[in-house]
């Protein structure tokens, strides 16, 4: 009989999304609406070559006897009782809530082996020390929606079940196509009437969505698949994003939320800017949001055919971008005319190049040779008369490139020194135009021999 794994947690932490990810197909309905799943859903998944029985459960909730919430919880408790392993999910964006701690006690009482999983860790979100209060050790950070951290989770599942991998463990499930053949998810975003829908139609070569001079024609995030230069891409046309204070209509509020979700789901965000009114406050706010979410960002300067002095205008735009989005230098800026179909090849080349950079991994030996040189050039400043030692660095993940430095006193390193390391990392390993994460962790080199 295959091993049985139950996925549990409070409502809306991403249980069904993780179920679909491990099943390598969309089996369970997924929605931002809590309580969508009510019954147990089971399926057979492949975990590194091993067949396992996977169970998606309803959110753990308190409820009166006989209520729907109570019956949903009973279903979840039955799944826990039958499981060989329990995956207890938390939402990294919301942190550990009192209800999480309450249900963690109930799961612990079952006596089943458990793995604590922090979901929704895309864009740099992570759980702090509060997760350790649950008594299950350090959570495994994943993004079930983006497939990040799945290799770490798979390794932990195999270890808990006492199994050895039968095939190489990666973040991409074996049943899915290769990363090269998967469509690159591209969200087209910007202010109203900047030309987003026109750009989508131009890339597709057909009138797929309605366009016109009226702002706000697009409300739903429209998805469309196509290929460009042999690469599969999935485009998301989104509603124009205005300042929150100017959004009054209920439909526009929903459309805005849909656009923000598209940014979080995307791998590359193309920010469409009106060349005649470039880099207004909202343009920069949208760009900052994409970078904060850890997405790769490319800027398309649309309506370029209307600009007379193109050279001077482009230079001024790049200076503005360098000053206003200084946290990520080297963002690709491509002039286009979506209506005339000009500059599209250059734009997509920028998208593919930025996407490859966003996925880049640096070998650990190269990273630590660079670290030794960086420390020699500029050693960490002393704090309260004591030196801060950075002993080792590793890159646990890409998408975006994420680095962890192990040091003696993480809290003592000033932000200025972290910026020095980040900028030096970006320059040494050719990481322009994408956000990078540099995190500090107290401890010795975890790979050093004891």
Outline the structure in words.
The chain folds into three domains: about 5-160, Rossmann fold (3-Layer(aba) Sandwich); about 185-360, Rossmann fold (3-Layer(aba) Sandwich), CATH 3.40.50.300; about 365-440, K homology (KH) domain (GMP Synthetase, Chain A, domain 3, 2-Layer Sandwich), CATH 3.30.300.20. Helices cover about 30% and strands about 20% of the residues. The protein has helices at about 15-25, 70-80, 100-110, 150-160, 195-205, 250-265, 280-290, 310-325, 345-360, 365-375, 415-430; strands at about 5-10, 40-45, 50-55, 85-90, 115-120, 140, 185-190, 220-230, 230-235, 270-275, 295-300, 330-335, 390-395, 400-405, 435-440. A six-stranded mixed beta sheet has the order 2-3-1-4-5-6, sandwiched between helices. A hairpin with a 4-residue loop joins strand 13 and strand 14 (about 400-405). The longest helix has 16 residues, at about 250-265. The chain is globular and about 70 Å long. The two termini are about 40 Å apart. Residues about 25-40, about 170-180, about 215-220 and about 245-255 have low confidence and may be disordered.
Helices and strands in order:
Elements: E1 3-8, H1 15-23, E2 41-47, E3 50-56, H2 68-82, E4 85-91, H3 98-109, E5 114-119, E6 140-141, H4 150-161, E7 184-190, H5 196-204, E8 222-228, E9 231-237, H6 250-265, E10 268-274, H7 281-292, E11 296-302, H8 310-324, E12 332-335, H9 344-358, H10 364-377, E13 390-397, E14 402-407, H11 415-428, E15 437-442
Parallel strand pairs: 1-3, 1-4, 4-5, 5-6, 7-9, 7-10, 10-11, 11-12, 14-15
Antiparallel strand pairs: 2-3, 8-9, 13-14
């Amino acid at each position: 009989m295959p091993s049985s794994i139950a996925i549990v947690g409070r409502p809306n932490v991403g249980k069904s999304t993780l179920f679909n990810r491990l099943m390598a197909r969309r089996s369970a309905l997924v929605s931002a609406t809590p309580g969508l799943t009510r019954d147990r859903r089971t399926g057979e998944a492949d975990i590194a070559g091993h067949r396992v029985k996977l169970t998606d459960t309803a959110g753990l909730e308190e409820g009166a006897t006989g209520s729907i919430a109570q019956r949903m919880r009973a279903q979840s408790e039955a799944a826990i009782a039958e499981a060989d392993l329990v995956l207890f999910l938390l939402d990294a964006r919301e942190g550990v809530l009192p209800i999480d701690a309450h249900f963690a006690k109930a799961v612990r009482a079952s006596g089943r082996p458990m793995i604590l999983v922090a979901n929704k860790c895309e864009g740099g979100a992570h759980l702090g020390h509060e997760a350790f209060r649950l008594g299950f050790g350090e959570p495994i950070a994943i993004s079930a929606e983006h497939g990040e951290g799945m290799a770490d989770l798979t390794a932990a599942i195999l270890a808990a079940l006492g199994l050895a991998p039968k095939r190489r463990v990666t973040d991409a499930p074996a049943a899915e196509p290769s990363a090269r053949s998967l469509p690159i998810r591209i969200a087209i975003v910007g202010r109203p009437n900047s030309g987003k829908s026109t750009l989508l139609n131009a890339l597709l070569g057909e009138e797929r969505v309605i366009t016109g001079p009226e702002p706000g024609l697009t409300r739903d995030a429209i998805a469309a698949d196509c290929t460009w230069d042999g690469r599969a891409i999935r485009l998301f046309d989104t509603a124009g994003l205005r300042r929150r204070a100017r959004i009054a209509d209920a439909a526009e509020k929903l459309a805005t939320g849909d656009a923000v979700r598209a940014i979080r789901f995307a791998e590359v965000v193309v920010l469409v800017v009106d060349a005649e009114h470039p880099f207004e406050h909202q343009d920069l706010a949208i760009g900052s949001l994409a970078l904060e979410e850890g997405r790769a960002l490319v800027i398309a300067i649309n309506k370029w055919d209307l600009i007379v002095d193109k050279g001077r205008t482009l230079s001024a735009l790049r200076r503005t971008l360098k000053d206003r989005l200084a946290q990520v230098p080297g963002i690709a800026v491509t002039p286009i005319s979506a209506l005339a179909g000009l500059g599209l090849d250059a734009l997509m080349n920028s998208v593919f190049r930025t996407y490859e950079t966003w996925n880049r991994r640096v070998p650990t030996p190269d990273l630590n040779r660079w670290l030794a040189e960086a420390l020699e050039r500029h050693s960490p400043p002393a704090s309260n008369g004591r030196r801060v030692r950075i002993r080792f660095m590793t890159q646990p993940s890409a998408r975006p490139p994420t680095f962890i430095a192990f040091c003696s006193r993480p809290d003592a390193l000033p932000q200025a020194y972290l910026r020095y390391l980040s900028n030096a990392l970006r320059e040494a390993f050719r990481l322009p135009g994408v956000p990078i994460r540099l995190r500090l962790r107290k401890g010795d080199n975890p790979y050093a021999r004891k």
